[in-house]
Amino acid sequence: MTATSPTAKALDVTLDGVGMRFVGPRGEVTALADFTHHAPAGSFTVIIGPNGCGKSTLLRTVAGLLAPSSGAVLVGGAPPRAGDGRVGLAFQQPRLVPWRSTLDNVALPLEVAGVGPAERQARATDALERVGLAGAAALRPRELSGGMAQRAALARALIGEPAVLLLDEPFSALDALTRETFDLELQRLWQERLWTVILVTHSVSEAITLADRVVVMTPRPGRVAKTVDVDLPRPRPVEMAADPRAAALATEVREALTSTRALELRPWAEQEGVA
Amino acid sequence: MRRIGAAILSLAAFLAVWKIVTVVGDYPEFILPAPERVAEEAASAIASGVLWEHTVTTLLEVVLGFAVGATAAIVTGIALAKSILIERVLSPYIVAAQAVPILALAPLLAIWFGGGLLSRVVICALIVFFPIAIATMVGIRSTDPLLSELLRSLGARPAQRTRLLEIPSALPVLFGGLRVGVTLAVIGAVVAEWAGASVGLGVLINIANQGLFNTALMFVALATLAIIGLAFYGLVVLVERRLVSR
Description:
The complex is a heterodimer of chains A (275) and B (246).
Chain A: E1 13-24, E2 27-39, E3 44-48, H1 55-62, E4 70-75, E5 87-90, H2 102-106, H3 108-112, H4 117-130, H5 146-158, E6 164-168, H6 176-193, E7 196-201, H7 204-210, E8 213-217, E9 224-229, H8 244-259, H9 268-271
Parallel strand pairs in A: 3-7, 3-8, 5-6, 6-7
Antiparallel strand pairs in A: 1-2, 1-4, 8-9
Helix pairs in contact in A: 4-5, 7-8
Chain B: H1 2-25, H2 35-48, H3 50-82, H4 84-99, H5 102-113, H6 117-141, H7 145-153, H8 158-194, H9 201-211, H10 215-243
Helix pairs in contact in B: 2-10, 3-4, 3-6, 3-8, 3-9, 5-6, 6-8, 8-9, 8-10, 9-10
């Protein structure tokens, strides 16, 4: 919670009654209904909820990839537009371009934005260093391990110095130990720069480790079931999970998730669908 | 080194079988000339400059026809891939043009575009067009949708997405089309020459066959066409190796 560096660049994110409907092959699907949340500038929000509750859809509206069907999404008071440089997005999969080196993959957002090659190279080298991948600049994505690839994807999301960082289950494909390391590193990176972060996850312990505020979502159509403030001191080490206050908060989040389960006993296919 | 050795060995075996067939069958020369007869004929055709004259013309048609056809096909293929409307409107014509035998179309095109180089380049380009356009379309459609979304999230404009993602994604399939197309270009050149030309390897085949009854000379022209096809195919493969590195 305590800032260790200025928050000058961070922007707040307002989700005001956001609704999202898609026309799918089996008729209209309501992915989000009246989702309201405010993430202050420089805060760390973790969104947690069952599969198919519209978490990813929600992030895509903040990234400017999807326009909400109803309600408003505001980043720093203005609607986001993909590529406006205010938002960095890391997906569940690393999504590295296979024929580009790691360095060129990380530099891709700058290339799209029209930054010259010398500056691209310098900044991408710097970004790789920040995520601990300095030695992998020349490697192709297929030569990277899963963890390294996800680091590269994180560096790519950070290279534009975004005011808001959106993370869509970025560590879910990693093994538990690697994941813990990533959570700590992400915390460290965030405390250095203090962007506004919105992270989507399935993991309660990850949520408690990282969040200022945990938003528990209902099954589809997704809305806020409960918000839990996590006012534990930072940095929060892995061992913190044993702390009684942390355990109590985790229980609170779990109970909120369980209380939505009654609604969740629907055919699997109905819950999947719109990612 | 081993590849070259294998190629020489296979060529030697081919010539040996050919020689054995002529000796065993003892065919008259107008049916199957012996390899050394064809070599003799080739030497004299090269010495007199006849072969060179016809070859240069055909080469020019192949190169221009392939360049024009491939360029038009790649542009069309990109448009077909990116717009369902364009695909719906254009593809029936493209398929129909491909289904009509080029042999039947060639005389018509010769009437429209005259007996000169232009009509032969057009015929050549037309036969090259289809496989490359389809390969481009299929290749671009094979672009990973997750990477497409990544580029959209970075605010890439459609032209940037095409340049940075779709064309590189399409390259392996596109080169499959180019390999087919470049060999078809040689066929197109000969068909075009048959529809009305006074010089070219297709013309040389006709002269040797119907004018001179010189089957050995016909073999020389056929072998030259095969070598042209092999050379251009090899060139495409070489470019492919440089560009497609995965």
